[in-house]
Amino acid sequence: MSQQQENLNEDRLITLAIHTLEYATTLKTLLESEGIIVELNNVNLTNPTFSAGVRVRIHEKDLPLALRIVENREIFVLTQSNKESGQAETILVPTDFSDHSLEAARAAFYIASKHNCEILFLHAYIDPAVDRNIQLRDVYTFDYKTDSEESKLLAQNEEKAMSKFIDKIKAQIKNGCLPAVKFKSVTTEGVPEEVIISYVKENDPYLIVMGTRDAERKERELIGSVTAEVLDSCRNVTMTIPSNCKIEDINKISEITFFANLDQNDIIAIDSLLRFLPDFSATINIMHITTKRDVLLNADRAVSNLVDYCQKNYPTLKFKKIKLDPHLIDQQIQSTKSQLFVVANRKRNMIARIFNPALPHRLLFRIDIPMLVIPV
Q1: Is the confidence at residue 65, as pLDDT, over 60?
Q2: For residues 126 and 151, is the Cβ–Cβ distance under 8 A?
Q3: Predicted confidence (pLDDT) per residue in 285-302, tens digit
Q4: Cα(119)–Cα(361) distance, rounded to whole angstroms?
Q5: How confident is the model at residue 222, as a pLDDT?
Q6: How confident is the model at residue 41, as a pLDDT?
Q7: What letter would DSSP give residue 87?
Q8: DSSP 8-state code for residue 256
Q9: Phi-psi category of 135—alpha, beta or left, where left has phi over 0 and alpha has psi -120 to 50?
Q10: 108, 82 Cβ separation under 8 angstroms
């Protein structure tokens, strides 16, 4: 196909949706606020005075971004209001003051410097006095004075630990080991995963960055993982950083593995990835873990079609298909040269999350490679 023909295809108008005039106008305003050119056409061309619906039409090249906006409309509306108010986006970094939390902080600082974000360090702790007073018997006994003093002392110790952690961060900024990015910290009492999820719902951070232990220790601590609970519950982009990995300039990542679901969410997730990393040049390996259902749907051909689509729409990057051996999946994943795994995470109900954990949850306990989880 000639260059002129490709340009004509990119300029071709396609119908994104058909809605009532009111809804179509609202959608047009939203898409145009994100830089997408939109045309509205009456469906009933034979009698335009009687509207049977309005077509929302866009250029074909804008389809990935438009799908992402439509599927995550509430996120883009909120992001737009933040832009208008002039407030900087926030990267949330939950911390327990460990070494793997420090590595997560390092990654967050480099990402924040690229995206002009601020960082919030969040630490939550559980007061043992609360657990001790919950007794499985008819008579409850409380020593309010003692418990109050212990709780106050615990809170002071946690604040001191946060201050020491912040001092480490400041020292690295002074030494030039970290870019100068604005940050603040919050220390609060509560169950860590519940505190994190509550903050995310109220404040909608741009990104969550969480440190994790190495795969062997994560496997031993499978039950009660804070990171796993956040991945399952939060609808925000989340990056996990294993304790033995160091990420500095994220744009220097040369190889990425993307796990495809073989539906339109793949296009949304890939476009989201490229908006998150707008200046990088890398090879993106597209991998799909085949199920019995996928065999009937010819998954291998679907992956090839996805690779072709991505190569056409993102010509500055290189896309490759990786075919998995069902009997050697773990070995193939572990042996990959990728520096980042990207997973599209679909919303699931509580029963499904318990009995059939999502792919991000499973990968979290099996790999020692940074992972970017994108909600779709």
Answers
A1: yes
A2: no
A3: 898 876 555 554 577 888
A4: 25
A5: 42
A6: 84
A7: P
A8: E
A9: beta
A10: no
- Of 55 and 52, the one with more pLDDT: 55
Cβ distance 108 to 135 under 8 Å?
no
DSSP-derived secondary structure letter, 62:
G
Which residue carries 């795994």 as its tokens?
A: 341
CA distance linking residue 242 with residue 368, whole number of Å: 6
- Report how far residue 322's alpha carbon sits from residue 207's, in angstroms, rounded to the nearest whole number: 28
Q: What are phi and psi of 116, to 5 degrees?
A: 55, 50
Instruction: Looking at mean pLDDT, say which of 215-224, 263-272, 276-285 comes out highest.
Output: 263-272
What tokens were used for 105?
């902080």
| SS3 call for 340 | strand
- Residues 6 or more apart whose CB falls under 8 angstroms from that of 61 comprise 10, 11, 313
Both structure tokens of 314: 């993102």
Instruction: Tell me the per-residue pLDDT of 336-369, one tens digit each, with 9 for 90 and over.
Output: 778 888 888 876 555 444 445 556 656 666 677 8
Pull the structure tokens for residue 147: 């418990």
Query: pTM above 0.85?
Result: no
> Residue 361, Cβ neighbours under 10 Å: how many?
20
Strand extents, DSSP E, the chain: 13-19, 38-42, 54-59, 90-94, 118-125, 183-189, 207-212, 238-242, 255-259, 283-287, 318-322, 340-345, 371-375
Assign 3-state DSSP to the chain and report helix, strand, coil percentages, each to 5.
Answer: 50, 20, 30
For the residues 274-288, what does the mean pLDDT come to?
Answer: 81
Q: Quick check: 244 pLDDT over 50?
A: yes
What tokens appear for 271 in the block?
């476009």
- Residue matched to tokens 């729409």: 313
| Count of C-beta atoms within a 10 Å radius of residue 2 | 7
Give the separation between CA 122 and CA 188, rounded to whole angstroms: 8
